[in-house]
TrEMBL record:
CDD domains: INT_Rci_Hp1_C. PANTHER family: PROPHAGE INTEGRASE (PTHR30629), PROPHAGE INTEGRASE INTS-RELATED (PTHR30629:SF2). Keywords: DNA integration, DNA recombination, DNA-binding. It comes from the Bacteria. The keyword DNA-binding applies. Residues 200-376 form the Tyr recombinase domain. It comes from Bradyrhizobium campsiandrae. Residues 390-415 are annotated as: Disordered. Residues 391-403 have a biased composition (Polar residues). This is Site-specific integrase. Residues 98-178 form the Core-binding (CB) domain. Coiled coil: none annotated.
């Protein structure tokens, strides 16, 4: 254990080693700074109480200044001299008495805003406020067991997807509780609770369904049952493969029709460039710019985007007799369309903005459709010749069948 006069400069010059160590202050006994192998430094106080050495963290250097840490250490060490002064015991008691509701509040105020996108933050808040707070109420964090978590998960069995999302949020909160010293390490009660099976939907529109959708969109536009911006949004979603929020909140400053690109500053996977086909460019060129409104898909209020596309979509899909099709399935249709015209998974993933190959791989089975079509054509021709030979035997037919097979083989070799 080193000894220094703890100041900003002296703390900065402390050497980082392969093991953590504590350097104590030469002027205030018990006041120290812990240097971690990672280079991080933490202020602390150390004292003895009832024959035991106790330590209480004050804060990380940089976030907490040396001067502020010294004042806090003076207060804590001064309290040790009192009859009931034990900062570590007070800390432990406070942690053990923390309720799930209080943990949820800390999670939503300290952790989520700094690390999550607004849409994710809204999902986390929904899980905490609608499902976790009502279930656990004032139960202490340390008392939550695997049985409690299983009961919560089971109570949401009628909404299995939400049950799994809520379980995921709770698991994250419990991991943070361990990091914050509220629960013991490796005691996450969510780990042994089995999630409900989830089946990823891969619904995409067939050519006939696309035709019905096209007619429904044209009718909605002509009859003005939906705004031209809502109709344009669905067309653009289909022709770009973008996510709903990417088009719904798209601003004209991110649109470059000369380069045929959308340069999105933020998306689910971060900043990305969306490459536009000619049809998408034509749609955007035809869409009016509303003076004073920065958005492409204009809302009903001034300077806003259209906030509700779900209700227009439900009306349009009903008219097209596509009641099971979600807006997100337009993105799936874009992906399947690329595979059906011969584009590889890597190219489709790039167009969709996927960061992981596994995400695009869910469409891999669609790439076999052109091969299946070729197999069907060949087998149909062979079957026609074969059954014709059986039903109407003649001297010429074996030669016809032989010629057909030779033709198929020649075509296969050429391919």
């Amino acid at each position: 254990m080193a000894k220094i006069k703890i100041t900003k400069r002296s703390v900065e010059t402390l050497k980082v080693t392969s093991k953590d160590y504590i350097a104590f202050d030469t002027e205030l006994p018990g006041f120290g700074v812990r240097v971690m192998p990672s280079g991080k430094r933490f202020f602390l106080v150390q004292y003895r109480r009832h024959g035991r050495t106790r330590r209480v963290m004050i804060g990380q250097f940089g976030v907490v200044t040396a001067e502020l840490a010294r004042r806090e250490a003076t207060i804590k060490l001064g309290s040790v001299r009192g009859a009931n002064g034990d900062p570590a015991a007070l800390r432990d008691a406070e942690r053990q008495s923390l309720t799930m509701k209080q943990l949820g509040e800390r999670f939503l105020t300290q952790y989520v805003p700094a690390r999550c996108k607004p849409s994710t933050e809204a999902e986390y808040r929904r899980a905490v406020e609608l499902f976790l707070d009502p279930f656990f109420a004032k139960q202490h964090v340390r008392s939550v067991t695997t049985a409690d978590v299983a009961e919560l998960h089971g109570s949401l069995s009628h909404i299995p997807y939400q049950a799994n999302r809520t379980l995921g949020v709770l698991s994250k909160m419990m991991n943070l509780a361990e990091t914050w010293g509220i629960r013991d390490k490796h005691t996450n009660p969510c780990e042994d609770v089995e999630r409900y099976p989830e089946r990823k939907r891969e619904r995409f529109l067939s050519p006939k369904e696309l035709k019905r959708l096209g007619h429904a969109l044209a009718a909605a536009e002509a009859e003005q049952t939906e705004t031209k911006y809502a109709v344009a949004a669905f067309r653009i979603l289909l022709l770009t493969g973008c996510r709903l929020s990417e088009i719904q909140k798209l601003e004209w400053r991110y649109v470059d029709l000369e380069q045929k690109e959308l340069r999105l500053p933020d998306s689910k996977t971060g900043a990305k460039t969306v490459h536009l086909g000619d049809a998408a460019v034509a749609l955007l060129k035809a869409l009016p710019h509303l003076t004073g409104n920065p958005y492409v898909i204009v809302g009903k209020k001034k300077k806003t985007h259209l906030t509700d596309l779900q209700h227009p979509w439900r009306r349009i899909r009903k008219a097209a007799k596509l009641n099971d099709v979600r807006i997100h399935d337009l993105r799936h249709t874009f992906a399947s369309g690329g595979l059906l015209v011969g584009e590889g998974l890597a190219m489709i993933g790039k167009l969709l903005g996927h960061t992981q190959v596994q995400t695009t791989a869910r469409y891999a089975h669609l790439a076999s459709d052109p091969v299946k079509q070729a197999a069907t054509k060949i087998s149909d021709r062979l079957a026609a010749a074969l059954f014709d030979t059986i039903d109407n035997p003649s001297n010429n037919e074996p030669q016809q069948s032989h010629a057909l097979v030779s033709d198929v083989e020649d075509r296969s070799e050429a391919a």
